[in-house]
Amino acid sequence: MRRQSGVALVFVLGILTLLLVLGVTFVLNMTGENRMTGNFEHVLRARLASQAGVERAIAELKLHARNSATDSATESWSTAATGVSYDTGARYALSITDGNSQINLNAGMDTDLERMLRGLPGLNSDPAMAANIVAFRNTLAGNIFVTKEQVMKTPMDKAVYNQFKDFVTVASHVDPNAAKDSGMVSSAGASFLSDTTKSWPMKG
């Protein structure tokens, strides 16, 4: 009987150990699932908040376009704003910048771009930095910057970059039919100007 009782005790302890392992595994899995769910919720809130900011920016610009034909630094779209996403309650910060008032690092001939960059704060003290930016652009795929932060790979100190970053962009509207100095007319623009001259020749 004692031997049978000992075997039963070992069997019960084994069952209890197995249940303990299963219980701990279940708790750990549930904790991980809760953490993943929380992370997904935070990502979703951030995405919806950013979309709310973009939609507000579009609304601000449309409202301005209806009320005024010119831009000024005092209009609501040109000042940073904050708001709340009604979908999630998450807060966002909004800033709209007129890209056409900035120097496009991906537009223009090398010499003209370098000349304009040399006049910017942080770059005007060392002309070589402007030349390095243009030379680095020509080593990139398609000879274009994807983000303006790439200029710091020239290399460049971040303190210098912070002085001129608000004066440059990598994406702005470039009219292909606009004539530019120093032969900076695109092929589409050159064709348009040529056709226009043939159709309406100038009289002396």
Strand ordering within the main sheet: 1-2
Low-confidence stretches are 182-204
* Portion in helices: 40-55%
**Helix/strand order, N-terminal first:** HEEEHHHEH
First-to-last CA distance? 127 Å
Strand proportion, as a percent range, falls in 5-15%
Global structural class: mainly alpha
Report the strand count.
4
Radius of gyration: 31 Å
- From the structure provided, what is the oligomeric state, counting identical versus distinct chains? single chain
Number of domains in the coordinates? 2
- Overall mean pLDDT stands at 74
Question: How many helices does DSSP assign?
Answer: 5
Largest sheet: 2 strands, antiparallel
How would you describe the shape?
elongated
Q: Quick gist of this model?
A:
This protein has helices at residues 2-67, 110-117, 127-137, 158-164, 187-199, and strands at residues 81-84, 91-94, 103-104, 168-169.
Q: Could you characterize the architecture of this molecule?
A:
The structure is a single chain. Helix content is 51%, strand content 6%. The protein is mostly helical and 204 residues long. It folds into two domains: 2-94; 100-190, no CATH class. Strands 1-2 form a two-stranded antiparallel ribbon. β1 and β2 form a beta hairpin. α2 (110-117) runs antiparallel to α3. It is elongated. The termini are far apart.
List its salient traits.
204 residues, mainly alpha, 5 helices
Outline the secondary-structure elements.
Layout lengths: L1 H66 L13 E4 L6 E4 L8 E2 L5 H8 L9 H11 L20 H7 L3 E2 L17 H13 L5
Parallel strand pairs: 3-4
Antiparallel strand pairs: 1-2
Helix pairs in contact: 2-3
